[in-house]
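Suppose you are handed a protein chain with no further information: no name, no annotation, nothing but its sequence. What can you learn? This example shows the usual starting point.
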Amino acid sequence: MLPVIAIVGRENVGKSTLFNRLVGGKPAITYKKPGTTRDRNIKEVELFGTTALLVDTGGYLPNESHGLKAKVKEQIELSLENANLILFVVDAKSGLIPLDSEFANRLRKLNKKVILVVNKVDTKQRQYATPEFYKLGFPRVVSISSIHGLGINELVDHIKEETTNTEHRAPKTEKLPKFAVLGRPNVGKSTYINALLKEPRVIVDEHPGTTIDSIDVTLNYEGKELILIDTPGVRRRTKVKSDTEFYSSVRMSRSISKCDVGILLVDAGIQLTHQDKRLISMLIKEGKGIVIAANKIDIGVGFREEILEFARFIPVTYISALKGKKIYEPVKEGLQVWTARRLWISKRKLRELEKLWSRLKIMSMVQARIEPPEFRIKSRRKLTPQDKRFVERELRASFGFIGTPLRM
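A reasonable first move is to predict its three-dimensional structure. Written in structure tokens, the prediction is:
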């Protein structure tokens, strides 16, 4: 197992900015408003030869016993429980406050390795604020500015020292299938992932829009490992008001671009909405595989598959994430779709089909690429859109290509 490094601290001390700095990208939303990070965000990172799992967490609030913030606290506790090393982030700008001391007492009881990270040390005045944090009693203290990258190399050196005994090299393996769990707000995406993983990996709350980051988790299904990406819900453009919602929408688009297959959760009680159709169009345009999971069948089924006339190749499954009914069907179908996206058809088999399509006057047809499958056709006459739809239907009838767009 790779060592697990958890980044923790109270709200708005710069945990996600540090996470992004160490990861080398922007997987976690950063915003000046406290409480922007809600779920645990986990990424595999390599820090100058040290490979580890880095965990970003929400802000610590000790006295929350109900509601969304209580669930954030549960996520932090899970991260602490599984961590080999804890990066305890404090804020030099606001100085040492009682909540920092309270959290420090909680961390000492864990008897785990802790590096105290004094963030926002980007002026000379704030450098003088660092010594007061030694009162917290942690021997390793590093001053940084995560937003400017100051002190990061020193922090990485400390991380390497503390993880030497648990350091492992990640084995080179075949690329894992990546499934993005998509859908409108409050359609049950996080409930679905939690049902699959059988632990509260992603926060679930009754209010729409709880997930604002794209969260990656690993699932083992019948001996096959795959990555699940829980995404923010897509809203109608007129309803995207706040900065956080805007960045969540951007992050959702990025999740689509990096996934292999999109599992689109829709409400089984109603027909496809405009947002549902827009997501399907985005996935087709990006060449991604698609599985529809009609959720909430415990409430009722009003969804009709014939509404998918514009994309009949998409498989439809019916589930109840809340009740745990048929929850693995979308994963099973998704793996078939993933295989279909990688399918390669030989020239000999394509020539056999060409002979049956004499009216199209095809001179040659070859497969040019996979993910998604793309075919190049030379013909003695220009193929009409109707001709291309015919070729697509025949290719699907002959070779499957379930759930994946075809290009030609």
